[in-house]
Design goal:
There is one protein chain. This protein is of the alpha+beta class. It is 48% helix and 12% strand. The protein has 2 domains: 2-71, 434 Repressor (Amino-terminal Domain), CATH 1.10.260; 86-264, Beta-Lactamase, CATH 3.30.450. The chain has helices at residues 2-17, 22-29, 33-41, 48-57, 62-71, 89-102, 121-131, 146-151, 163-181, 184-194, 242-246, 257-264; strands at 107-110, 116-119, 218-222, 225-235, 248-254. Helix 1 (2-17) runs antiparallel to helix 5, helix 4 runs antiparallel to helix 5 (62-71) and helix 9 packs antiparallel against helix 10.
């Protein structure tokens, strides 16, 4: 009964977090509202197939679907293999190809909590240039967390001319991640970022002086070097693995001819 109660509370929590009524969830899962009600009250024990159906109807990430499976007393449905595992060789080749094709501009592979997993040569040069800054020495034993590096006062913040504008949009992205995955870890990351001094409130209105521009650029400025970049973030489609679903590929592009020339050189 304890396991079923755990599943019931998790199901109710996720349904409310998604802003769905029992009727709406029942419609998406193609079951009766009565059945959803019984699942949430613990009166009905879900089958493995029903847990998967509910997880899909709630649009849960694979990691959270696995947690729901465990709460119902079943083994996880989705495997989680580390990058470098033989089973992910196909994905590895795709990532290597994307990183190479992005040259001479930077590209990074990151996980869902913005930890840097790998980069191309241009990205290594950019990271080396930016981290060679007094007062900021990333721990070489730990992956760089791009979220923390961007928001923390003693990391990249002093090097970004339009930091407040960039930070505002970035914090909204992290909040969207926290709302989507519902995990304590992502919520803790957001709280950590918001706790830094002088961080803009998420509801703050960004400056509209350059509203004609289609994207927000990141303006790095260090000594005599000025780099203006904007980013795209891609994910791997049709994932069937937790790691693969959570991978993001962030590609940087020059926002002006001078930045493009700097990277070409």
């Amino acid at each position: 009964m304890g396991g079923n109660s755990n599943f019931a509370s998790r199901l109710r929590w996720w349904r409310q977090r998604r802003g769905m009524s029992q009727l709406a969830l029942a419609h998406e899962a193609e079951v009766s509202q009565r059945h959803v009600s019984f699942l949430e009250s613990g009166r009905t024990t879900p089958s493995r197939e029903m847990v998967l159906r509910i997880g899909a109807a709630l649009d849960l990430p694979f990691r959270e679907q696995n947690a729901l499976m465990l709460a119902a007393g079943f083994a996880p449905a989705w495997r989680e293999r580390a990058l470098g595992a033989p089973e992910l060789a196909l994905v590895e080749r795709a990532l290597d190809s994307m990183l190479t094709q992005q040259e001479p501009y930077p590209a990074f592979v990151i996980d869902r909590r913005w930890r840097l997993l790998r980069t191309n040569r241009a990205g290594q040069m950019l990271v080396g240039f930016l981290t060679d800054t007094p007062g900021w020495k990333p721990d070489p034993a730990q992956p760089v967390n791009l979220a923390d590096a961007l928001i923390a006062p003693n990391a990249l913040r002093p090097l970004i001319a339009n930091w407040r504008e960039v930070a505002l949009y970035f914090l909204r992205s992290v909040r969207a991640d926290a709302l989507a995955d519902g995990s304590r870890e992502t919520a803790a990351l957001l709280e950590q970022l918001l706790a830094y001094p002088d961080v803009p409130g998420i509801a703050e209105i960004p400056p509209l002086a350059d509203a004609e521009e289609p994207v927000v650029t990141i303006h790095f400025r260090k000594a005599d070097t000025s780099l203006q970049l904007f980013t795209t973030i891609a994910t791997l489609g049709t994932a069937r693995d937790v790691t693969v679903q959570e991978i993001r590929i962030e590609c940087f592009f020059p926002a002006d001819p001078a930045t493009a020339e700097t990277f070409r050189q």
